[in-house]
Amino acid sequence: MFSKMSRTANSVLVTLAILFIWRVEKLAEACSCSPAHPQQAFCNSDVVIRARVVGSQVIDAGNDIYGNAIKRVQYDVKMIKVFKGPNRNFDMIYTAPTSAVCGVTLETNSKEYLIAGKLESDGTMHVTLCDFIEPWEGLSATQKKSLVQRYEMGCDCKITHCTSIPCTISGPAECLWTDWVIEKSVNGNQAKHFACIKRSDDSCAWYRGSAPPKKDFLDIEDP
User: Fold this and answer.
1) Where does the record place the NTR domain (predicted)?
2) CA atoms within 13 A on the CB side of 212
3) Tens digit of pLDDT for each residue in 124-156?
4) Closest listed residue to residue 172, CA positions, set 209, 207, 198, 194
5) How far is CA 214 from CA 61, 150, 153, 194, in A?
């Protein structure tokens, strides 16, 4: 009898251990996202703004299907400029409460950020760790200029992330992003200084320049 109870207890413990491991793995997977070039992040976002973060608070956001309370972090922001999305004021941005579920931590000392995120059905802006969020002062001059027009010009292009050599593209409407294999960083030269732009023949190529590219440019142009 004791042996049977012991086997039952062991079985329960094994099941609980498996469930715990599964839960940890699910949390880890919950915030898994592929690196994205700033242009990709811009094109994939509903809203891209420059804003100053002035405060934060944890709020209740209803209950999940099991009746557990859902928490959200509400960041109060003073918007400076809209680069993409509805031309209206966003004075609050929402995110998950922890990084385990992709929550974003922003400094609330009036620091300025470039914030890209998603627009919910109720009109609110939500952000995750997978979105492109950077201190404004940390952006390169090219990145700042590209937010106005250049990134949008390349939204029909595909940026292929090269993770190991050899790297190839599957068609002329692609740009090969090689920062990781060359610099071991996703914030390298191409991310900071280049945009993938569609040319007049519908092919795409990396562009670097201080002005919007000419209509029929053929090669990379230097400033």
Assistant:
1) 31-155
2) 11
3) 999 999 999 999 999 999 999 999 989 999 999
4) 198
5) 48, 11, 12, 15
Residue positions forming the annotated binding site: 31
Q: Which residue type is seen at 191?
A: A
Whether residue 40 contacts residue 143, with contact meaning beta carbons closer than 8 Å, is answered with no
Closest C-alpha to 92, from 51, 132, 64, 133: 51
Rounded CA-CA distance 104/98 in Å is 7
> pLDDT for 30-40, tens place per residue?
688 889 999 99
Q: Quick one: which H or E segment has residue 197?
A: strand 195-198
Tell me the one-letter amino acid at 76. D
Q: What is the pTM of this model?
A: 0.77
Annotated binding site for Zn(2+): 31
Strand duo 204-207 + 195-198: pairing: antiparallel
Alpha helix stretches (DSSP H) within 37-165: 38-44, 141-145, 151-153
Percentage helix, strand, coil for the chain under 3-state DSSP, each rounded to 5: 30, 30, 40
Residue-range domains of the chain with CATH: 38-138 (2.40.50.120), 141-207 (3.90.370.10)
Strand partners for 69: 63
CA-CA distances (angstroms) from residue 169 to 91, 113, 131, 149? 41, 33, 25, 25
197 within 8 A of 158, measured Cβ to Cβ: no
Amino acid letter, 39: Q
